[in-house]
Amino acid sequence: MNSIVLHFVPLCIIGFARCLPLDLDMDMTAGLRTSNHVDEGILVEGDIISLKSIHSKNLVRKPSQLWPNKVFPYTFSKDFDDLQKFNVETALRDLAFQTCVTFRERTNEPTYVVFKNYAKICASAVGYADLKNLGGEMPIYVSAPGCVMRGQIQHEVLHSLGFWHEHARPDRNEYVTVHWENIRPGSESNFEPRTWEDTVTLGMPYDLNSVMHYGKKAFSKNESPTLTPKNSPLNENMGQRFRVSKLDIAKLNRLYECDNRYYKGYELEA
């Protein structure tokens, strides 16, 4: 296991409420309703920052858009309190136990993540970009109180590591039904699938339990489902934000070419 370069106390010591799964009917997009803009760019698919300096969305296909040397350097904006930092570090530690990616506080890395607390939103850019000539900061918004659960934070971190939303896979219509009639006006683009030209699945099957999947009432205008699973009508975990799924970890370890000490889900290959 990869050891995270941080000082930690054991997982889930602070209040049991922070260790329990979210209500899966919760609208995970509520904090994004007031604006589609943040300081660094515009929001797409609800929580993905399309940086003003980045024109290509083809991030996860290019090795140059993975974090160099499998190191994820980060720091916090000044408006984070100790509890918020603990929540982030707990989420990162959970990932570090399962992957070869190293998460460490920034020293002198020219491009690095800054965890920010802004407007009660959860948001991140997808993948790495060399921003050393533009200040170096890659923002991840994990604002309180809207984005404090472990899985919510991991969702945004996986975006930064190179993951798009699971429901936007090109093959998603084989697994879920989109109820367009229930989607909030102006939010329809959040449900458009990507093309095979700008997506890779790393040989892994569709994952309804992924922390990257929308919940069944995401962007609903009337509290009716916007997404329902086709082959798992009793599935209760779609949209969960408790923690990364087994397949999330397998994809991460494949994406960053971790060696075979790390789980890669060979038994689950599509």
UniProtKB/TrEMBL annotation:
Key words, A-Z: Hydrolase, Metal-binding, Metalloprotease, Protease, Signal, Zinc
Active site: E156
UniProt-listed Pfam families: Astacin
InterPro entries cross-referenced by the UniProt entry: Astacin-like_dom, MetalloPept_cat_dom_sf, Peptidase_M12A, Peptidase_Metallo
Binding residue positions for Zn(2+): H155, H159, H165
Cofactor(s) this protein cannot do without: Zn(2+)
Statement: the UniProt record of this protein carries the keyword Hydrolase: yes
Cofactor note: Binds 1 zinc ion per subunit.
EC number: 3.4.24.-
Superkingdom of origin organism: Eukaryota
SMART domains the UniProt entry points to: ZnMc (SM00235)
Peptidase M12A domain span: 58-259
Protein's name according to its UniProt entry: Metalloendopeptidase
